[in-house]
Design a protein that fits this description.
567 residues; two-stranded antiparallel ribbon; single chain; alpha+beta; elongated; 11 strands; 9% strand
Length: 567
């Protein structure tokens, strides 16, 4: 038997409870068996271990609570906060604030205006406006007023949309000879149609394609708008016609793709797109619309996956020694660069900036630290903008002007400062784990983030690629994607064509009408010669013509065909 009292040095003595200096149990002993002593020690160690586990669990839960609070702050900001990402950093701005009252929106007082818009290209319809019959005589003596050969002129802009039937009367001739093997009657050729037996003309299909894929109005709304103007058109008729039009764009898309593969810089991005057709092996209706934007082409691909195989397939036959690909940090693009070694990824600084802004919103204790990094990124943008003001595209980097070289050195110095700051912060023992995660990501992507420093033609962010998805995203919200696979392919194809045309500054209405008319003239097929429709192969005269609005809506007559409007 041994005493339960701890030996001296094994633990602290019992506290003194009485003024006499002795506790009531100090002189008493308790005896218990060895087994009971072992049991008590085991239980004490067990509860100590449980206490340690509880403390560790509490620490984990506190970190999880902090993370969830940060996520909640971010979601609250996205849902209810300002859409602008401008920071409220307390550090000094790059430029001193302008003193005086805040500038009002709109035209400023005493500033020169742009004058009246030039509308000389619009046709003029003259309307005679006369005075009333009773006003043509004097109300007192009845004398008739004499009209002068003068008019007071003014203009009002009107837009009239009018559907009409174009009745085609084909001339018929009786043969004036008796030659064998020849028919008795000779009839003028039929009018060209976009596809065989089409009852809707080129102008209708031009409006339909523009209305849906450029102005983003659902088909049923277009049909309702036409019905309100007296033209009843069923959605089924439009759907059947659009399905027949889809093959007409395939040769054009192949030419656009081939051109894009020869360009040394490209932007890439992707967004979801619904395709409501059951595909074998595909679960659900979520597809993805990919965009690849180069200097000459904006190309869209609609694919069932968001995997790396999509950009790999699109860029499999590159015809350049090196391609700089601007993108976000999505892993599919990293797989792309690993598979095609001539591709250099240029990551987006706007996403890095967003990381620090989200950190500032989610963790109040890190606000000043995170906004300091935001200010450093803003200075980087500022220095790059100053550099580009002196950049000459026609000269190599070592042959640039002295002002360019000065700003180039300032930009490189700022990058060095940010590198040192990142390493110093990562080495700090008091660095918050969330801040460490952001800085670790910054270090991992640093080689792709500084590509722009050696290539002034490459922007610091992927904004051009993201802007290219704004239009289809708006369309996705309006008509919920595509109802079938062929309509999805048509959407990607027409978006590619129209956005490329706009990229070159051409008039989409004029170009699309000319293209569909050429398809009709070719017997409902794509024309064999695409050069009149490819912007980089057009001469200046052709490009200038297609950049203007479509002249006159009168039907185009061929030498053997007469057109009579019987509307």
């Amino acid at each position: 038997m041994e005493s339960l009292l701890p030996s001296s040095g094994s633990c602290s003595t019992l506290p003194v409870l009485y003024r006499g200096g002795q506790s009531p149990f100090e002189q008493e002993t308790v005896q218990l068996s060895k087994q009971a002593h072992i049991q008590l020690k085991w239980e004490a160690n067990y509860w100590k271990a449980q206490h340690r586990r509880a403390l560790a669990r509490i620490a984990e839960l506190e970190k999880e609570i902090e993370r969830l609070e940060a996520k909640n702050c971010d979601l609250q900001q996205r849902l209810f906060g300002r859409r602008s990402e401008k920071s409220g950093a307390k550090s000094e701005p790059l430029q001193p604030p302008v003193s005086g009252p805040k500038r009002q929106r709109g035209q400023q007082p005493n500033s020169p205006g742009h004058g009246r818009s030039d509308r000389s290209l619009l046709p003029v319809v003259v309307t005679e406006q006369d005075i009333a019959e009773e006003a043509k005589r004097c109300s007192i003596c009845g004398a008739v007023h004499r009209r002068l050969p003068l008019t007071e002129e003014s203009e009002i802009i009107e837009v009239e949309v009018r559907a009409h039937r174009r009745r085609i009367r084909r001339a018929v001739y009786r043969r004036g000879c008796q030659c064998e093997g020849q028919g008795e009657l000779i009839i003028a050729p039929p009018a060209p149609r976009v596809y065989p037996k089409a009852t809707l003309g080129v102008s209708v299909w031009t409006e339909v394609l523009l209305d849906k894929y450029l102005y983003l109005r659902p088909t049923y709304r277009l049909c309702q708008a036409l019905a309100d103007r007296g033209f009843e058109l069923s959605p089924g008729t439009l759907t059947d016609g659009l399905r027949r039009l889809e093959p007409l764009f395939e040769p054009l898309l192949a030419a656009l793709h081939e051109k894009q593969l020869t360009e040394p810089h490209m932007h890439g991005d992707e967004t979801r797109w619904e395709v409501f057709e059951a595909i074998e092996g595909k679960v659900g209706h979520r597809w993805y619309l990919w965009v690849f934007r180069s200097a000459s082409v904006v190309f869209y691909r609609l694919e069932p996956t968001r995997g790396a195989r999509v950009p790999k397939a699109h860029l499999a036959e590159l015809r350049v020694e090196a391609l700089i690909f601007s993108c976000d940090r999505y892993s599919a693009y990293k797989c792309l660069a690993n598979a095609i070694h001539v591709i250099i990824l240029a990551f987006c600084w706007a996403h890095v900036r967003r990381d620090f802004l989200q950190l500032a919103r989610g963790y109040p204790t890190l606000t000043d630290w995170a906004l300091g990094w935001v200010e450093a990124i803003a200075r980087l943008y500022h220095l790059n903008g100053q550099r580009l003001q002196h950049w000459d595209r026609d000269h190599a980097l070592d042959a640039q002007s002295p002002p360019y070289q000065i700003h180039q050195r300032a930009l490189e110095a700022q990058l060095s400062v940010m590198t040192e700051r990142r390493e110093r912060d990562l080495a700090s023992e008091t660095l918050h784990p969330a801040a460490g995660k952001v800085l670790t990501s910054l270090g991992e992507h640093w080689p792709g983030l500084i590509v722009f420093a050696a290539h002034p033609e490459v922007p610091m962010d992927n904004n051009p690629g993201e802007r290219s998805l704004r239009l289809p995203v708006t369309g996705r919200k309006n008509f919920y994607g595509s109802g079938s696979l062929w309509s999805a392919r048509l959407a990607a194809g027409v978006l590619t064509v129209l956005q490329t045309i706009r990229l070159w500054g051409l008039n989409p209405h004029h170009w699309l009408y000319a293209w569909l008319q050429a398809c009709a003239d070719s017997g409902g097929q794509s024309p064999s010669d695409l050069s009149p429709f490819l912007p980089w192969q057009m001469d200046e005269a052709r490009r200038g013509e297609l950049s203007q609005p479509l002249p006159g809506s009168q039907p185009r007559a061929s030498p053997t065909t007469s057109f009579h409007d019987t509307s």
